[in-house]
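Hello,

Following up on my earlier ticket. Below are the two sequence lines again, exactly as submitted.
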Amino acid sequence: MTYCLGIITSSGLVIAADSRTNAGVDYVSTYQKLFDFTWVNERVLILCTSGNLSITQGVLNLLNKDLRTQAESNLHTLPTMYEIAQYVGSKVRSMQEQNRPWLQKDGIDAQCNLLLGGQIQGEEPELYMVYSQGNFIQATKETPFLQIGETKYGKPILDRTLTFETSIEAAAKCALLSIDSTMKSNISVGPPINLIAYDRDSFETKRRLTLRLGDPYLVKIRKQWEVSLRQAFERMPDVDWQHNPHSKVDIAYTDSLD
Amino acid sequence: MTYCLGIITSSGLVIAADSRTNAGVDYVSTYQKLFDFTWVNERVLILCTSGNLSITQGVLNLLNKDLRTQAESNLHTLPTMYEIAQYVGSKVRSMQEQNRPWLQKDGIDAQCNLLLGGQIQGEEPELYMVYSQGNFIQATKETPFLQIGETKYGKPILDRTLTFETSIEAAAKCALLSIDSTMKSNISVGPPINLIAYDRDSFETKRRLTLRLGDPYLVKIRKQWEVSLRQAFERMPDVDWQHNPHSKVDIAYTDSLD
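Thanks for your patience. The regenerated structure is below:
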């Protein structure tokens, strides 16, 4: 499994990913899933991948090949983030076309999803999710985050702390806690965690981090978050069993037998 | 969707369930999913259901019919919780056998899962999950909770606050927060919430509650939990971007192009 998330706020972007891949519980390994295609001072471009590893590595290879051969359309020539999302989608479609019929013969899942975040000179920062089918959606102010992979365990913290006005520092913290919650509940998501925080209009990714297994900062925030959660939990008022006596009858199936 | 959970601790049981059912987003309705089959002073028996509603209602109907007709084997005659789990599993198998071939013709999911918690005089409290296939597992001290339905959003709070030694009051609070987290992140889980807390060896379910939409206690704990979470979040140390400068190279795909 995989968990990657992108956050877009009024002051920039945060992109984070775990690095665990598994094909069954007996084949767990580590693969990088966050890739920085930034061209400093010109454009910031970050990609995260989830799903079938052979498909996503193929997509990255195609993107990279176009850069190296200076193909007319590549990550560094296309003029807008929208067109880059379309272009990444076309690479996904090409990999799917090539491999899917073969994978399907053996019932292997060919699905993949990608996150694409960045900013091009003269444009706003933007964040996209590209689907297996090559189509894509863009994050908006109303829901300023997108997730791929094992998304559910880490969503409550995002739902409760993130808005479009959240600072980049707070969004980065939130991303780490979201990944940590996921790692705690699903062993198929694991370190190293890659994290990038991008300040809008800076056109470089200065703040980036790889947190490995047992990294002291990772250990510290997990411990502190657990203590804080437990304290918050203990401060919650006990259930008021008396406040609605009429509810007692609602769930009895066998009153007549009592 | 549905979310139900059962918690077993050294001092008793907590069982909770939402009440939302949906067949597509355009057919959302309210159905009770927690049922109390307790026979006061003799045995406490609580069932929760998730999955295909026609199947689970059918199972409940079969269980109830055996009670009303005083069949030899019924929820009030079987001597152990294990045998009751087996018996509930046999009703699941009977409903599956009867309906699954018809549902499968139209690609309709016939899956269902049930939680069964309770205590019989002379026995310990026990908690089971009965699968669609009629087989079942029992909760143990190591992992003192079982969930059915939309389980992921509400799991982090359980993973971080529950142990077998948690008090029943705390476990009940935790169950409500787990359901509230799920409701916040998935609109197909919703109130009324039914909640039962059972003190071991009491052989009655005195503490039970139905929390309806907008219930003041539900509003209060959601608000207070959000405030507490946000405060805990704000107290977390900011990301230390400098602590591992070597990590910078790891995720760059295009250093040569910088």
